Q: What sequence folds into this?
């Protein structure tokens, strides 16, 4: 009887332990499945929240690049015109900037030149 009671207890312990192992395995598989699903969801969210790169929208990126380049060229032309007039004003044939605008009026070509330089800097900036 002592032997029977010992085997009965070990059998009951094995029976009690077996469902818990199955439950643990089910829980582990459910946790792994949920982790995979969350990982996929997070990767989809990351892909959606990425900034637009040049490869995903080449027409939009190239259009913006063309507009920036055009602004840079306009800025350089504005600056170049003032520089050419400044250099040509050294010749006796062309009136100088001081003769046309006066000392206090030199702010006009100076602001034109600074605006051209800023526009050129913005136009040729590579983000």
A:
């Amino acid at each position: 009887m002592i032997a029977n009671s010992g085997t009965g207890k070990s059998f009951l312990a094995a029976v009690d332990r077996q469902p818990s192992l199955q439950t643990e395995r089910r829980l582990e598989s459910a946790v792994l499945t949920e982790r995979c699903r969350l990982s996929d969801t997070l990767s989809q969210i990351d892909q959606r929240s990425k900034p637009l790169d040049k490869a995903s929208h080449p027409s939009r990126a190239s259009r913006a690049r063309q507009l920036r380049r055009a602004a840079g060229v306009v800025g350089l032309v504005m600056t170049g015109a003032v520089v050419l007039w400044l250099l040509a004003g050294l010749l006796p044939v062309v009136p100088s900037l001081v003769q046309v605008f006066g000392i206090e009026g030199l702010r006009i070509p100076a602001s034109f030149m600074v605006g051209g330089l800023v526009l050129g800097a913005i136009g040729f900036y590579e983000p």
Observations:
- The chain has four helices and no strands.
- Residues 2-49 form the longest helix (48 residues).
- The mean pLDDT is 81.
